[in-house]
Amino acid sequence: MKVDRRGFLRLGATAAASVALSPLPTFAQGAASRVVVVGGGFGGASCARALRQADPRIAVTLVEANPTFTACPFSNAVIAGLRQLTAQQFTYERVAADGITVVRAQAMAVDAPGRSVTLADGARLPYDRLVLSPGIEIRWGALPGYDEAAAALMPHAWLAGEQTLLLRRQLEAMDDGGVVVISAPANPFRCPPGPYERASLIAYYLKTKKPKSKLLVLDAKDTFSKQKLFQAAWAELYPGLLEWVSLSKGGNVTSVDAATRTLVTDFGRHQAKVANVIPPQKAGRIADAAGVADRSGWCPIDPVTFESKLQPNVHVIGDSAIAGAMPKSAFAANSQAKTCAAAVATLLAGGTPSTPKLINTCYSLVAPDYGISVAGVYVPSGGLLADVAGAGGVSPAEAPRATRAAEAVLAEAWFRTITGEVFG
Ligand SMILES: Cc1cc2nc3c(=O)[nH]c(=O)nc-3n(C[C@H](O)[C@H](O)[C@H](O)COP(=O)(O)OP(=O)(O)OC[C@H]3O[C@@H](n4cnc5c(N)ncnc54)[C@H](O)[C@@H]3O)c2cc1C
C-alpha cells in the first residue's frame, strides 16, 4: 500500500488509525525496525525526530491525540494578557515531513509482552520499541473537592489551552480590589518554578490593571525553585500585593469548595474572587494502562536508556518519568528525548548505549522585562539521574535590572529555539 505521508496526516483519527492497522508503511528501503512514540509534545515529537535522524531506516510512528500542540512554557504570559494563545500553538506538518507517520488518535492500551499499542478505535500498532511521553494527568479528587467540574470554576491551567484562557478571562472579569488565590502542590509536579512565575505575572497584571487587588499564594511546600530570586523580585516589584504562605505558615490547601471559590487550609478558609488551583499530578493515563507507572503515579526508568524498570521495550521520557534530580520541564523532556532516541537506535542495532549527560535550563519571567533562570547537568548515578555538583547554577542574586531584562529576552529566544527544533 502506498501512503502519502502528508495525506496520512490529514486523515481523521478513525481513518488514520485504520490505515495504521495494516502493516506499517515503510518509508526507507529495508526499514530496520518499528518504533511507536505516544505523545507529540516536547518529549515525544523531539524523540520521533531524533530517531529518524539517528537511523533513517527506523519506521517511526507518532501517536498524538490532538491536531495542534499547545505549549505550556510562556502560557503564564497568556494568562497575564501579555501574549495570545495562538503564539503557543504548533502543528505536526514539519514532523510528518521528516518521514514520521503521524497518527491522530488517543492511545488507550499497551500490550507490552505482545509489543503493540491499541488506539481508541481498536486499531493496533505493532512495535519493536515503544516510547511514551504522555506528559501529566491531573489526580482528580486527590485534593478533596477538586474534580473536573470544579476545574471549570477554579481553573488549574496546568495543561495549556482552554484552561489557560478561562483563568485569563476570570482575571479580566474581576473587579479591582478582588482577592486572587493560587494554590501550589507538593513535589513532584510539572514545572517546579511554574507556580511562582504565574504568581509573578498575575501580580504584574494586577499591579498594572487592578492595583487595589491582592494575590495570595498558598503553598504545600516550605521551599521552591529559584526561591531567593523570586522573593527578592517580589519584594522589589510587588510589595503589599503578593503574599506567599508556606506550608509551615498554614499554606497547605486540604480541600476546596468550588461553588464558593473557597480554599481550606489547616489554619483557615480563604475565599477568592479568582482561584487558580494547581492540583497534584501523575504520569499521563497511558502510563498506567501500559503498566509502567509505580505506586507513586510516576514511571521508574533506567537513566541510561529511559527504558521502563517495569516493562521491557517500553521507554518513558518527559514529565511522566522519574528522572531523579532532573525537573519536569520542556527542556528536560527535549534533552531526555534525544538521549532516549540515541539509546533506542543503538539497542535496535544490537549495540550498547553509552552513558549520557543531560542538561536543563529553566527561565522564568517575574515581569515582562525581568527574567531569572536555573540550569543543571545530570548524569546516571545509583539508578537515577543525579545533579553534577557545580555544573549548573542560578542567576546572580545581586544583578542590575539590565541583566534581568537580558534574561527576559533570552527566555523568549529559548522558547523560539526549542519550539522551532521540536515542531519547526
Ligand atoms: C504554566 C507552565 C509553564 C511552564 N514553563 C516552562 C518553561 O518555561 N520551561 C520549560 O522547560 N518547561 C516549562 N513547563 C513544563 C513543560 O510544559 C513540560 O515539562 C513539558 O511539556 C513536558 O513534555 P512531555 O513531552 O512530557 O509532555 P507534553 O509536552 O505535555 O506532551 C504530552 C503530549 O502527549 C499527548 N498524549 C497524552 N496521552 C496521550 C495518549 N494516550 N494518546 C495520544 N496522545 C497522548 C498530549 O496530547 C500531549 O500533546 C511549563 C509548564 C507549565 C504548566
3D architecture notes:
Strand 11 (179-184), helix 8 (194-209) and strand 12 form a beta-alpha-beta unit. Helix 3 (42-54) packs parallel to helix 11 and helix 3 crosses helix 12. 50% of the residues are buried. It contains 12 helices and 25 strands. It is globular. The protein has 424 residues and is α/β, with parallel strands linked by helices. Helix content is 30%, strand content 26%. The strands form 8 sheets. Strands 5-2-1-9-20 form a 5-stranded parallel sheet, sandwiched between helices. Strands 13-12-11-17 form a 4-stranded parallel sheet, with helices on one face. The site of flavin-adenine dinucleotide (FAD) has 37 residues, from helix 3, strand 2, helix 4, helix 8 and helix 11.
Question: Characteristics of this structure?
Answer:
alpha/beta; 5-stranded parallel β-sheet; binds flavin-adenine dinucleotide; 424 residues; disordered N terminus
Strand order of the largest sheet: 5-2-1-9-20
Low-pLDDT residue spans = 1-29
Task: Summarize the main sheet.
Answer: 5 strands, parallel
Beta-strand share of residues: 25-35%
Q: How many distinct helices?
A: 12
List the helices and strands and how they pair.
Blueprint: H1 5-10, H2 13-21, E1 34-38, H3 42-54, E2 59-64, E3 68-70, H4 75-79, E4 89-91, H5 93-97, E5 101-104, E6 107-111, E7 116-119, E8 124-126, E9 129-132, E10 136-138, H6 148-151, H7 162-173, E11 179-184, H8 194-209, E12 214-219, H9 227-237, E13 242-245, E14 253-257, E15 262-265, E16 268-271, E17 274-277, E18 281-283, H10 285-289, E19 299-300, E20 314-316, E21 321-322, H11 330-348, E22 358-367, E23 370-381, E24 384-387, E25 393-394, H12 401-423
Parallel strand pairs: 1-2, 1-9, 2-5, 9-20, 11-12, 11-17, 12-13, 19-21
Antiparallel strand pairs: 3-4, 6-7, 7-8, 10-18, 14-15, 15-16, 22-23, 23-24, 23-25
Bound molecules: flavin-adenine dinucleotide.
Residues 38-44, 63-66, 69, 72-73, 75-76, 106-107, 133-135, 158, 190-191, 194, 198, 284, 286, 318-319, 328-331, 333, 362-363 line the site of flavin-adenine dinucleotide.
